[in-house]
Automatic annotation (TrEMBL):
It comes from Carassius auratus (Goldfish). Keywords: Catecholamine metabolism, Cytoplasm, Transferase. This is Sulfotransferase. InterPro entries: P-loop_NTPase, Sulfotransferase_dom. One of its GO terms (molecular function) is sulfotransferase activity. It is an enzyme of class 2 (transferase). Its main location: cytoplasm. GO terms for cellular component: cytoplasm.
Length: 287
């Protein structure tokens, strides 16, 4: 199926129709934030699921019950997806935790008024591409990626779900409300998960004992999290995600692009990156 058949354009950005029907986008547009809310914002395949595990564990002070009993999409719902309407989010106690793949400019009026806390996760775009390439090949609600070369052109042009990685990142790093946003790199979580948990906890004003921090980091390492059926998407029917083709929690490493890219693809990607990011002064971990 084609982009025209599977995606709709919302605020100029492709969103998968199946997950974001018009009534869900309307609900999200009218949603009222609270100052205590925590929003995990990401370009898809940057580490959303990882944060959907880490943050609830911080709030439960290391009690594993919420992550072992509630699927990640209800535990930390995507505000813009179809389930949000069903979850009675208005009745949830603070601090509520949500996820979104929206670009900064797609956020609603309440967001800009209330300025809730945001955890924005960044990942090397070559690894985002690599993870996406496998994911688009197994998820039926997305357009089949075609060849790597074809998918690379679409990715670089932003003709994929949630549009351009470059615009997404530039929008959030240039947000005016910098004091309410914590930028976290997927790569720093890989290098030092315990340190990342401490950094996130500090930003959220949560003091965790060394034992609890250790417990959270231990549960959230890839091999342990992969076993959690509330987080590994094994509850999703195969007709939507065929994990026999590629698992959702696939490799969980930094630098897997090196196993996928040809030399020509690396050069093509680097040239596009250089051009599109030429005015950006933000320091990325992969530069
Ligand atoms: P890979 O496909 O490279 O393995 P998102 O949740 O934003 O869709 O991102 C999915 C990517 O994050 C996948 O990358 C997935 O394996 C990785 N991921 C999820 N949990 C992880 C963890 N605990 N440790 C490392 N990577 C993780």
């Amino acid at each position: 199926m084609t982009e025209a058949e599977l995606y709709s354009l919302y605020k100029g950005v492709y969103v998968p129709m199946h997950l974001h029907p018009p009534e869900s986008l309307r609900y999200c547009e009218e949603f009222t934030f609270r100052p205590e809310d925590i929003l995990i914002a990401t370009y898809p395949k940057s580490g959303t699921t990882w944060l959907q595990e880490v943050v609830p564990l911080m709030l439960s002070e290391g009690d594993l019950t919420p992550v072992l009993t509630v699927p990640n999409w209800d535990r930390v719902p995507w505000l813009d997806e179809h389930r949000a309407i069903l979850l009675n989010l208005e009745q949830r106690a603070s601090p509520r935790v949500f996820a979104t793949h929206f670009h900064h400019h797609m956020m609603n009026q309440s967001y800009f008024k209330i300025k809730p806390r945001v955890l924005y996760v960044l990942r090397n775009p070559k690894d985002v591409f690599t993870s996406s390439y496998h994911y688009y090949g197994m998820a039926s609600y997305l357009v089949n990626p075609g060849t790597q070369d074809e998918f690379m052109e679409k990715f670089l042009d932003g003709n994929v779900m949630f549009g351009s990685w470059f615009d997404h990142v530039k929008g959030w790093i240039n947000a005016e409300e910098q004091e309410s946003i914590l930028f976290i790199f997927y790569e720093e979580m890989i290098a030092d998960l315990k340190g990342s948990v401490e950094k996130i906890a500090k930003f959220l004003g949560k003091s965790l004992s060394p034992d609890v921090t250790e417990k959270i980091a231990d549960h959230c390492v890839f091999k342990n999290m992969k076993q959690n059926k509330m987080s590994n998407f094994s509850l999703v029917p195969e007709e939507y995600m065929d994990q026999k083709k590629s698992e959702f929690l696939r490799k969980g490493i930094a630098g897997d692009w090196k196993n996928l890219f040809t030399e020509a693809q690396e050069q093509r990607f680097d040239a596009a990156y250089k051009e599109k990011m030429k005015d950006v002064t933000f320091k990325f971990m992969w530069d």
